[in-house]
Design goal:
Helix content is about 65%, strand content about 0%. It has helices at about 5-10, 15-25, 40-45, 50-65, 75-80, 90-100, 105-110, 115-140, 145-150, 160-175, 180-200, 200-205, 215-240, 245-250, 260-270, 275-295.
Length: about 300
């Protein structure tokens, strides 16, 4: 990526459809996510520094680390962006802006065609595997280190934990129901490499998924999702998550959504980019923390 990291972080929106949805999910991981925007502001908050010279040094070191092609920061940010890069339908930006008003969602939903369960299930799996690969890139470990990722989940916090919460809620529970992990794995087993190759989200990121071809990558995706199954089940149970609670929290700014979960999932898929947003914040945090340690 050629865009400077400080410009990417500075461009993060303080308020839009994505941030509204994430704030609506705050009860899932209470107090974990702060919408940290602005490069200098992120340095101040994460480091606790108020000395401008030290803030400048941390920023310069973070930028140097990001620009080093031998590091995995650019790749991680690219993955977070690309796996979310399917929203750009003409007119949706204008529609998304109106969602800040308390208007009915019915007119918007009528313009949607919800994805088939199989497509939604594969989308969920691909997003989860992108999280695994991006985690490895940020931490300088081999991209197929599923065990390291699963072990790290107990330490997930801040925007990383919010991203996993949103994945489970918005791409798992909402469109697929409470047995979303079982369904997702079932879709992978039944669909095979052929259907995986037809998936748009997979096509966006397949160049960085471990495996020499679609069949091998399907095996890696199945391995990754299967390894996270127990953690996801405990996450849902410990927070007593369910579709009724999710709909209840989203109804504050999305009226008329009862009984239309597949349409809600489609609408959110088209109008939010929570993976890119929180992924950018994760990359910035990783850079800043490392830069602090090296100065």
């Amino acid at each position: 990526m050629s865009e400077p990291i400080f410009k990417v972080v500075d461009a993060l929106p303080a308020k839009n459809m994505t941030t509204r949805v994430l704030h609506a999910l705050d009860w899932v991981v209470p107090g974990q996510w702060n919408n940290l925007v602005g490069f200098e502001n992120s340095i101040k908050v994460i480091s606790g520094e108020d000395d401008q010279k030290m803030i400048q040094k941390i920023g310069e070191r973070a930028i140097a680390l990001y620009n080093d092609k031998g590091e995995g920061y650019q790749t991680a940010l690219w993955l977070y962006r690309m796996v979310d890069n399917l929203q750009g339908m003409a007119g949706w930006a204008a529609l998304a802006n109106k969602i800040g008003e308390n208007i009915s969602m019915l007119s918007l939903m009528n313009k949607l065609t919800p994805k088939a369960d199989t497509t939604q299930g594969i989308d969920f799996c691909v997003k989860l595997v992108v999280e695994i690969v991006a985690f490895c890139k940020l931490n300088g470990i081999p991209g197929d280190s599923v065990a390291d990722f699963v072990k790290s989940l107990s330490d997930y916090r801040d925007e990383a934990l919010m991203r996993m919460a949103a994945l489970i809620c918005l791409d798992g529970l909402l469109p697929l129901g409470p047995d979303f992990m079982v369904k997702a794995l079932g879709f992978l087993d039944k669909s095979g490499a052929g259907d995986l190759e037809k998936n748009e989200r997979y096509q966006q990121v397949k160049s960085l998924i471990p495996g020499e071809n679609a069949k091998a990558q399907l095996g890696f995706i199945s391995q990754g999702v299967g390894a996270v199954k127990d953690w996801a089940g405990k996450f849902v149970a410990s927070r007593d998550l369910g579709t009724d609670k999710l709909v209840g929290s989203l109804k504050n700014f999305m009226s008329g959504i009862d009984g239309k979960l597949d349409y809600v999932a489609a609408l959110l898929d088209m109008t939010t980019n929570y993976y890119e947003h929180t992924g950018t914040q994760s990359v910035a945090r990783s850079l800043i923390v490392r830069a602090m340690g090296e100065i």
